[in-house]
Amino acid sequence: MFDTHMHTKFSTDSKMKIEEVIYKIKKYNLGAIITEHVDLNYKDSSLFRIDPDDYFKSYSSYRTDKLLLGVEIGMSNKFSHEYENLITNYSFDYVIGSLHEMYDIDLFEADELYKSKSKKELYEEYFAQMVSCINEHPFIDSLGHIDYICRYAKYEDTEIYYEDYKESIEEVLKTIIDKGIAMELNARRLGDKEVVNNLLKIYARYYELGGRFITIGSDAHTSEAIGSHFNIANDMAELCNLKMIYFKDRKMELVR
Ligand SMILES: [Zn+2]
Ligand SMILES: [Zn+2]
């Protein structure tokens, strides 16, 4: 399998060394794509950005068919042109498009937002913003963690129940399918059976609407997390009839 989502020391929130990635993927016989954070809208402009020259200079000697160099962009309609320039000017293998912020606040520190809006209201807006961002960033390869908000929202129950947001979620799924963008299955929360059951409904619907391709990523920020819950992710892909893929040189490759 290929772990298509992980962060090393070029990401503000990770200290992982590339040597740790190499050790781990050899041990588990995995392929890996490093996907450092670039969040151009993050309020502190010294954080969550990379120096792409430094990134490629430091890592290009480690690059192989099994260790690829990508990026995770924090989609923001204010910066879509800058993102497009970044990925056309540098030879990334893979681009994840993620929604990390709403109203210019990153969702991991949006306590005010969670206080000021009901879960239903905010989650509807979250999916609507996702659709709008995908339309503004049609050049991404895969849509990152559709369930990102569940990690950090401050409601009694932060889960996304497909039935509660059916139309909004379908709009997201139809938009990526229409643009030929793959969907990520982010393995980070798959240790919880409830989460798996809820996500399965979304991925099954993705298939029904015509979606076929998923990227599996651990979103590891430490080497312990690389490849974690991949057996569950693999089962979920099979259950939903979805093909696991990764990207090399911005081209889709089938896993296996
Ligand atoms: Zn992310
Ligand atoms: Zn990430």
UniProtKB/TrEMBL annotation:
GO cellular component: cytoplasm
Domain PHP stretches: 3-187
Family: Belongs to the PHP hydrolase family. HisK subfamily.
Recorded catalytic activity of this chain's protein: L-histidinol phosphate + H2O = L-histidinol + phosphate
Keyword Amino-acid biosynthesis carried by entry: yes
Enzyme class: hydrolase
Pathway: Amino-acid biosynthesis; L-histidine biosynthesis; L-histidine from 5-phospho-alpha-D-ribose 1-diphosphate: step 8/9
GO biological process per UniProt: L-histidine biosynthetic process
GO MF annotation list: histidinol-phosphatase activity
UniProt EC number: 3.1.3.15
Protein's name in the database: Histidinol-phosphatase
Keywords carried by this UniProt record: Amino-acid biosynthesis, Histidine biosynthesis, Hydrolase
Keyword match Hydrolase: yes
Xref: NCBIfam families: hisJ_fam, PRK05588.1
